Amino acid sequence: MSTFLRIEMIILALAIFYYIVKMINKNAFSLRRSAPWLVVGLGIIFIALFPQVVSFVAHQLGFALTMNFLLFVGLVFVFVLELMKTSSDTKKDNQIKVLIQEVSLLKSELEESKKE
Questions:
Q1: What's 2's DSSP letter?
Q2: CA-based, 20 to 30 A from 48: which of 6, 17, 31, 90?
Q3: Distance of alpha carbon 105 from its chain centroid, rounded?
Q4: Which residues cross the membrane (predicted)?
């Protein structure tokens, strides 16, 4: 890996960190939701500083090219994030449904009490 590419990767990782911290400060991201993206930034820095380690791991796992390994890791990462998001959305949907039912019951009771 060329030195220029390594420098570009470190700059990209720093830009990711800057953007995430900026969004956390604006309350656009929660710290919990931004943690995986901070890990991505750390991963990019690790790959830039130690490309031979990533290459060694890729070949030990049977990948012909290091790029194939990195693509596979990226796909797994996106898959896990999507599963987590789906789980979170389902919980929120259930909470919204319960809240709507509670509000409807309260409205019904209020209307009945007004009639009496």
A1: -
A2: 31
A3: 37
A4: 6-25, 37-57, 63-84
